[in-house]
């Protein structure tokens, strides 16, 4: 070995050892992101159940903030659950027509009021409080948009144009909100009526100043499932 090579040996030896070690040690995969929650029950192309209450929260509060959602399958757990403002999180429960849980009928979303979102994130993060009916209206638009034009003309209620969004029933009581009610029916005017049922307790309501925080800033809606509305319009269900 020449003197020059000998001089380089202290620098080359660590590199040679590292290369040998790499050849002997199995490759280690980069840690994957946490596993996604189990997929929601398959319910047809219109029912993206994992996103329904996320979209509902963004619609009703007029916000683009990221939203998380807890998808409950046990009713009693849903009843006891409460949404959160930070992180912004909704609670969701799906009501089904069938015991096999394949045909969604109504979706219940527990969300946060716009004044609570504004208090936590700033007034610029919300356009103010909307209505549960706004979410039903968006659902109708989604159903019609997913229906080819030729089929749309054959839909019931004049191609889905004769749909009335009733003034929603609003309560401040959880038990009253959970009581059964007719959320879709044919009115005396021959139109399809969609009726949302809401619970609302504003975060800044002075009447609730002494109430526990978990009971304030709550905005709940019972809403028609997209595929159920589509089945009504296709004449598969009589409301």
What does this structure look like?
The chain is an alpha/beta fold and 239 residues long. The chain has one domain. The protein has nine helices and nine strands. The strands form two sheets. A six-stranded mixed β-sheet has the order 1-2-3-9-8-5. Helix 3 links the parallel strand 1 (68-72) and strand 2 (89-96). The longest helix is centred in the first third of the chain and has 22 residues, at 3-24. It starts with a helix and ends in a 6-residue tail after the last helix. The relative contact order is 0.15.
Question: What is the strand and helix layout of this fold?
Answer:
Layout: H1 3-24, H2 52-61, E1 68-72, H3 75-80, E2 89-96, E3 104-112, H4 114-121, H5 132-145, H6 149-152, H7 156-160, E4 163-165, E5 169-171, H8 174-178, E6 184-186, E7 192-194, E8 197-201, E9 218-224, H9 226-233
Parallel strand pairs: 1-2, 4-7, 5-8
Antiparallel strand pairs: 2-3, 3-9, 6-7, 8-9
Helix pairs in contact: 5-9
Name some characteristics of this structure.
239 residues, 9 helices, globular, disordered N terminus, 9 strands, six-stranded mixed sheet, three-stranded mixed sheet, alpha/beta
Task: Write a brief caption for the model.
The protein contains nine helices and nine strands.
| DSSP strand count | 9
Secondary structural class: alpha/beta
Which parts are unreliable, with pLDDT below 50 for 5 consecutive residues or more?
A: 1-44
Order of helices and strands: HHEHEEHHHHEEHEEEEH
Distance between the termini: 93 Å
């Amino acid at each position: 070995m020449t003197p020059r090579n000998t001089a380089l040996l202290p620098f080359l030896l660590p590199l040679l050892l590292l290369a040998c070690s790499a050849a002997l040690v199995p490759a280690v995969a980069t840690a994957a992101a946490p596993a996604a929650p189990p997929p929601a029950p398959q319910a047809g192309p219109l029912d993206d159940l994992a996103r329904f209450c996320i979209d509902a929260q963004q619609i009703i509060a007029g916000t683009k903030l990221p939203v998380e959602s807890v998808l409950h399958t046990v009713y009693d757990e849903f009843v006891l659950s409460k949404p959160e403002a930070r992180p912004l999180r909704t609670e969701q429960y799906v009501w089904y027509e069938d015991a096999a849980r394949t045909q969604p009928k109504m979706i219940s979303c527990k969300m946060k009021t716009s004044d609570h979102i504004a208090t936590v994130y700033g007034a610029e993060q919300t356009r103010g409080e909307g209505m549960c009916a706004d979410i039903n209206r968006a659902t109708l638009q989604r159903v019609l948009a997913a229906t080819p034009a030729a089929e749309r003309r054959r839909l019931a209620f004049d191609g889905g144009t004769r749909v009335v969004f009733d003034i929603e029933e609003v309560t401040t009581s959880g038990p009253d909100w959970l009581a059964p009610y007719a959320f879709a029916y044919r009115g005396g005017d021959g139109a399809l009526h969609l009726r949302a049922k809401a619970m609302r307790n504003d975060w800044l309501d002075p009447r609730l100043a002494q109430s526990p925080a978990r009971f304030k800033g709550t905005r709940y809606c019972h809403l028609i499932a997209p595929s159920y509305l589509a089945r009504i319009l296709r004449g598969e269900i009589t409301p």
